[in-house]
Amino acid sequence: MPELPEVETVRRGLQPVLEGATIMRVEARRADLRFPFPDKFSLRLTGKTITTLGRRAKYLTLDLEGGPVLICHLGMSGSFRIETEDDSHMPGIFHHDRSKSSSHDHVVFHVASPAGARSRVIFNDPRRFGFMLFAEGAAEDHPMLAGLGVEPTGNRLDGALLASLMKGRRSPLKAALLDQRVIAGLGNIYVSEALWRSSLSPLREAGTIAKPGKKAKAQSEGLAEAIRAVIADAIAAGGSSLRDYMQTDGSLGYFQHSFAVYDREGEPCPKPGCGGHIERIVQSGRSTFYCRTCQR
Q1: 220 Cβ neighbours under 8 A, 6+ residues apart
Q2: How far apart are CA 52 and CA 74, in angstroms?
Q3: Rounded (10°) CA dihedral 100, 19, 155, 224
Q4: pTM for the full model?
Q5: Which of 115, 132, 143, 170 is paired with 280 by a 20 to 30 Å CA distance?
Q6: Given 3-state DSSP classes, what are the helix, strand and coil percentages for the chain, each rounded to the nearest 5?
Q7: Which among 148, 146, 205, 175 is positioned nearest to 4, based on CA atoms?
Q8: pLDDT-derived band of residue 245, with 50, 70 and 90 as boundaries?
Q9: Residue 260 and residue 246: Cα distance in Å, rounded?
Q10: pLDDT digits over 64-77, tens only?
């Protein structure tokens, strides 16, 4: 499933075309994706101007002039592509690697820019685990978003806040970080990478980084910094599973080439002087990659 950096790069790719554009027509080519489309889905979108294209955790949000807010989730295989009215592809900045089959093109937004340029924004989803829903008020009040935790971007997530979120938690640290009610948008790949960068074991009790004393304070500060940095690095690299259509060869988003531990089972730990090897374990049904020598 696309994680926060992938969704953010999708948002950045769509933003130049969608923000300020008017939705001229919407084709919903089936009745549902993961959930049924809202009543009068196409009708309620037609004629609306998109004032802001945002992101909350792994959700895209389209604020429409006069409401509602359209909430989109990519699911396992959802992607967007942009085409001009003459069928040529528009690159945008970043787009999620997409299915090649038009039979999975389930929603088509026909939009016009303030200058009158016409484009099609097409949502393709072979597995149909994505969805589109309306929020009638503020997006953050919708049940899908209301319980989400703090964003792992920007400076708000610092050591003190992270320690307060982990205080008293007896679950493994990795499991606590994956709890979307605590930190919104963190996924399996980037939690594994952040824990390696901060030299913390995914198996340690989460509350240990919130104990009194300098050691725990340094651990919480180091982990907060590592989380922010790994997310920022992944966004800058176009994520780990994205295709950058600014490049003529269509090369993939390349953060996967910077993985230190994820999917590196059996390889030497890249931390200088460590001498350990990357191991794979299973936590809550998910693969965890870490180095038991330097991650404590």
Answers
A1: 159, 160, 162, 163, 166, 209, 210
A2: 18
A3: -20
A4: 0.86
A5: 170
A6: 30, 25, 45
A7: 148
A8: very low
A9: 27
A10: 999 999 999 999 88
Separation of alpha carbons 10 and 127, rounded Å: 19
Rounded to an integer, what is the distance from CA 24 to the centroid of its chain? Answer: 28
For residues 122 and 82, what is the distance between their CA atoms, to the nearest angstrom?
6
* Nearest Cα to Cα of residue 145 among 46, 256, 69: 69
Q: Which residues pair with 53 in a beta bridge?
A: 62
Beta bridge partners of 119: 84, 111
Domains (range + CATH), the chain: 4-141 (3.20.190.10), 159-256 (1.10.8.50)
| Among 120, 74, 116, CA closest to 239 | 74
CA–CA separation, 187 vs 177, rounded Å?
Answer: 8
The residues assigned a catalytic role are 2-3, 58, 286
C-beta of residue 110 within 8 angstroms of C-beta of residue 25: yes
Work out the pLDDT band at 242, boundaries 50, 70, 90. very low
pLDDT digits (tens, 9 = 90+) for 179-196: 999 999 998 999 999 999
